[in-house]
Amino acid sequence: MVMSKYLKSILFLSIICILCTSFPAFGLEQVRTDKLDILAAEVSPQPVRPGEELLVKVSVANYDDTTVNNIILDVENQFPLILRFSEKEYGVKSISNSSFRIERISSNGNVEINYNFLIDPEARTGTYHVTFKLSDGNSVFVTRTISIEVEGTPEIALMNSSFSKTGISPGDDFVLYTTVESVGSGNAKNIKISLQIDDVPGLVAVNDNSAFIHTLDAGEEKEIAFKLSLGKDADITSYNIPISIRAVDDTESLNISSVETIGFEAKGKAKIDIANVKNSPTMPEKGTELTQIIRIENVGEGEARSVKVSLVDLDMSGTKEAFIGKLDADDDAPATFSFIPQKSGDQEYTALIEYEDDFGNHSVEQKLTMNVTGTSPYLILLVIIVLLVLGYTAYTHKDRLISKNKK
Questions:
Q1: Where does the pLDDT of residue 56 fall: very low under 50, low under 70, confident under 90, or very high at 90 and above?
Q2: d(CA 99, CA 112)
Q3: CA 181 – CA 218 distance, rounded (Å)
Q4: Membrane spanning segments where (predicted)?
Q5: What CATH number does domain 272-372 carry, 3.30.70.1230, 3.40.640.10, 2.60.40.10, 3.90.1030.10?
Q6: What's the CA angle centered on 283, arms 278 and 287, to 5 degrees?
Q7: Which homologous superfamily does the CATH classification assign to the domain defined by 28-150?
């Protein structure tokens, strides 16, 4: 009897085991996970630009002959993809904005989910990725990474512009240096930088007035240079150099065009010299007041300011400094001095001319010699004659008085 009950129990358990192995359990455990896949049904637009929206439609496919129940689809996105919202089919439940529970996929069927992303406006040209994962909530059994091509918007700027000379004057050759930098979010190619100086009077390009750069990725830079010449007759004024920039993006679907201006101030370089020296009287004499006029001329291209002339090492009493002030290019002005020579002979002295122009303060020295004569022999003779006449007159007057008294 006991043995009979024991046999019945064994028989019952055996039947249960057979039933468990003969019929699949409800759920994912009986489905071959190698028959599941994640497909990119649609990715648009491609490439996508920063600030634009991107649609990624994925299809979860079941290639098995059995139904799949209760699987979870997760999405992992990184910069520059920002997940905004998702659209799902019936039978798909939201766990979170980036996670969904697919309640059922029929045999050889599929379920589609749409993901809407925003591309960060700061994104640069490059290949980025978004990853989808299928799991049962614990173990991941399918992973699919989809590549996203982002085409940034290129922008070219001229940076750190400078000139080979700190002061540029008419007649000078000089070099303009500038750095071409890709400051946008996209790569640029076929870059052409051109000087637009046809309407800038007096300024010409010594060599080519254009420079070419094949490619510049976002953030890259390259220095270029242009050799220029400012004509001798050019005005002393401000000059603006228009520079045009043309390029295309990597896809050659976007044209870039802009104009920047680099300016400089043409400086005037004065050159001061002595045109002539005139004395009055022409033959200076010892002890006689003398007026000397030194004519100062500006033979440079720029104006001279605060022009002052001083007579140095001149051993004479009188006025030895003269202030002229401003002296334009190709202009002259007198510096007038008045003094009395104290001794005769050759008098050596220096004319010191001080002035300033656009380049700073300057001084010029020029040696001068003045011959001073002694007392004129004609003057001595005249004095002797006058004394003789006075003496003779006094003598004859005295003689007349004596003759008159005798009478």
A1: very high
A2: 14
A3: 8
A4: 378-397
A5: 2.60.40.10
A6: 110
A7: ntegrin, alpha v. Chain A, domain 4 (2.60.40.1530)
